Amino acid sequence: MFVNVDILLSYMSNYALAGWPVLVGWRVMYGIGVLPPVLLAMLESPRWLAMRGRHANSIEEAEFRLEDIQLAVAAPQEAGGGVWR
After folding, report:
1. What pLDDT is recorded for position 41?
2. Average pLDDT over residues 59-66
3. Which of 47, 52, 70, 84 has its CA 20 to 30 A from that of 4?
4. Which residues cross the membrane (predicted)?
5. Where are the alpha helices (DSSP H) in 1-85?
6. DSSP letter at 75?
């Protein structure tokens, strides 16, 4: 569904920017396409959390995450997937 919505939004932006000069239109379209990934990369990232002062994890949570990672690494690697499955 997201692919279809993305295609629809692409056609709508092409239609909206069709009257703009070519040298400006493609830059605006590129800028619109760059904004969502940049926002997604910034929100809730470790840097963003540290800037907001939200860096205090409990020791229990950190130990739980470390144990989970160690179990995933120690698991036998199956053919065709392993940890990524």
Report:
1. 74
2. 78
3. 84
4. 20-43
5. 2-16, 22-42, 46-51, 59-74
6. S
Buried b (16+ CB within 10 A) or exposed e, 22-33: eeebeeebeeee
Report CA Rg, the chain.
Answer: 22
Tokens of 50: 């540290």
Q: How many residues does the chain have?
A: 85
Residue 20 DSSP class: S
Structure tokens at 54: 């939200």
Question: Position of tokens 């994890």?
Answer: 57
Distance separating alpha carbons of residues 79 and 76, to the nearest angstrom: 10
* CA gap 48, 37 in Å, rounded: 15
- Any idea which residue has 């379209």 for tokens? 29
